[in-house]
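Entry 12.
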Amino acid sequence: MAAAVIAVARDGTHRFSKQHAPAITLLAGLGVEGDAHAGVTVKHRSRVARDPTVPNLRQLHLIQAELFDELAEAGFRVAPAEMGENVTTRGIDLLALPTGARLRLGATALVEVTGLRNPCHQIDAFQPGLMKAVLGRAADGSLIRKAGVMAVVLEGGIVAPGDAVSVAWQPAVFHPLAPV
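Predicted 3D structure (tokens):
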């Protein structure tokens, strides 16, 4: 199965979950048109409180649907957009990408992966115990964050369910994803 977008969402208000949309428009250097997190500088409320001038490395949030499958096996029911992502994919291991990898979404949109989403306490408010379920431990004891990746928009375009997702470019040197 080829990697594909299975859902898209946006929300003009800062809430945990986003609203499903038939399509979203990505704007180069800004993010998702009509989304509360779009902008050149940080829009996440906790980050704005610290320093509103910091560049927005979290313009777009992507989660792989395979996470929802894993969560279902653990007794949770999570659907696309409910964890606040703009783009839900299937068939691509987003968490295995290096920092700086570029993804083609649909015909024209190009995004660059900036890092991991660092899950926050709101996840447990959404479903008790979910925070622990989206965190894991590697064999060396290091923390594994599974709540998706963040990206910036390099080239805009319309993205809709059914659109192809492909790795357009990866850096020559692999730098593992870290929280942003």
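Annotation: Residues 66-73 form the longest helix (8 residues). The chain is about 15% helix and 30% strand.
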